[in-house]
Write a structure and sequence with these properties.
By secondary structure, the protein is of the alpha+beta class. The chain folds into 3 domains: 81 residues; 43 residues, Low-density Lipoprotein Receptor (Irregular); 122 residues, Lipocalin, CATH 2.40.128. It is 31% helix and 33% strand. The chain contains 3 helices and 10 strands. A hairpin with a 5-residue loop joins strand 9 and strand 10.
């Protein structure tokens, strides 16, 4: 379609010169009369080509809109298919022990979480090394924030209003690819009956590819750790929990969303 439009433009430019719309012979009445008719005919052909170009341009815009709409629908269906696939994998019965990864998809093989995304296929079908599995959504400079609506178990010594996790450092070593070491600042907005205060805690942890889980070790004496799990489809949000290190009991839940600038 674009080629047709270019050909039409070339033809239009060949028919008429911008500096001299037409060349007319004014030497005689008959020459003037013939030349005038020639110029009129030529101008008519140019007008026809211009109108055709306009129609082609409108058609191209219409086709481009349909292509964009089709692309959007395809992306949505692809995302839905991936979401269903991940949910089915999670619903399949697994015989794997804690700390193991199920190869799934009809394969009952279990491999250690430490072997997932280590650069070597341990599942027969390579499920443990798939790109979607081995892509970390946690990058340096990312900021995830969450509103805390309530703390029914009085989980922390602070009455949290919100929590923000600003990723400051991401490191991955060739000799230990299955873990990504993460450093961040946990920015805690909390309040008592009279005052609102913001505390910033330096936290350190890792991203677990097998569980798609971001883990931060306890930064304070209360030994409360923070985890945030991604669903494998939406990399811009995760389901977070605050838990006691010793018992692993979850005492606070939240939904964190990546901030955009």
């Amino acid at each position: 379609m674009w080629g047709l439009l270019v050909c039409a433009l070339v033809l239009a430019l060949g028919l008429v010169n911008a500096d001299s719309p037409c060349v007319c012979n004014y030497g005689s009445y008959h020459g003037h009369h013939k030349s005038s008719r020639g110029c009129s005919a030529l101008q008519g052909r140019v007008d026809l080509q211009t109108a055709r170009i306009s129609r082609l341009s409108a058609r191209i815009q219409e086709l481009q809109s349909k292509l964009d709409e089709g692309q959007s629908k395809r992306d949505k269906l692809s995302s839905q298919q991936a979401d269903i696939s991940h949910r089915l994998h999670d619903l399949e019965p697994h015989e794997c022990d804690k700390g193991e990864f199920s190869c799934g998809k009809g394969d009952n093989t279990c491999v250690s979480n430490l072997l997932v995304c280590d650069g070597t296929n341990d599942c027969d079908d390579g499920h443990d090394e798939e790109h979607d599995r081995c892509h970390s959504p946690v990058t340096s400079g990312s900021v995830f924030s969450a509103k805390i609506h309530e703390d029914p178990h009085q989980c922390t010594k602070r009455r949290l209003n919100s929590i923000k996790i600003a990723i400051t450092s991401v490191r991955q070593f060739n000799w230990f690819k299955s873990r990504v070491l993460i450093s961040a600042n946990a920015i805690l907005d909390h309040s008592d009956h009279e005052h609102t205060q913001i505390d910033t805690l330096a936290v350190h942890g890792y991203y677990n590819f097998a569980r798609r889980r971001l883990v931060f070790h306890p930064p304070e004496d209360d030994r409360l750790a923070v985890i945030c799990e991604f669903d494998g489809v939406d990399n811009d949000s995760c389901h977070g929990s605050v838990l006691h290190e010793a018992s692993l009991d979850h005492c606070l839940e939240f939904h964190a969303v990546r901030e955009t600038h």
